[in-house]
Amino acid sequence: MTEDYLEVRDWPLTEGRNFSEAELRSGAKVIILGATTARELFGDGTVIGQQIRVMNVPFVVIGLLSPKGQSGFRH
C-alpha cells in the first residue's frame, strides 16, 4: 500500500489523516477504519486516537473513511 491508495480509490477521509510515508516504511501500528466498523466499535463516540486490537496487536486509529455503500471491500 502507498499513501496514494485512498486517492486512487476515490475514498476520502471524513476524519483524521492518511498514513505517512514513515508509518508505511516502518510498519507503524496505526489504522484507518471504515465508517461501518467505526460505528460498530465506538457508536457515535470519538474514533481518532482510540486503540483497537487486531489479532491481539494494538493499533491507534488515525483516520476514518467516508461511507462507501455496502460493507465489504469493493474493487
Structure, explained:
With 75 residues, the protein is an alpha+beta fold. The protein has one domain. Helices cover 24% and strands 28% of the residues. The protein has three helices and four strands. Strands 1, 2, 3 and 4 form a four-stranded mixed sheet that branches. The model has no long low-confidence stretch (mean pLDDT 83).
Name the helix and strand elements from N-terminus to C-terminus, one letter apiece.
HEHEHEE
The rounded distance between the terminal residues' Cα atoms is 15 Å
How much β-strand is present in the residues?
A: 25-35%
Poorly predicted residue ranges: none
Throw out a few tags for this protein.
75 residues; alpha+beta; four-stranded mixed β-sheet; 4 strands
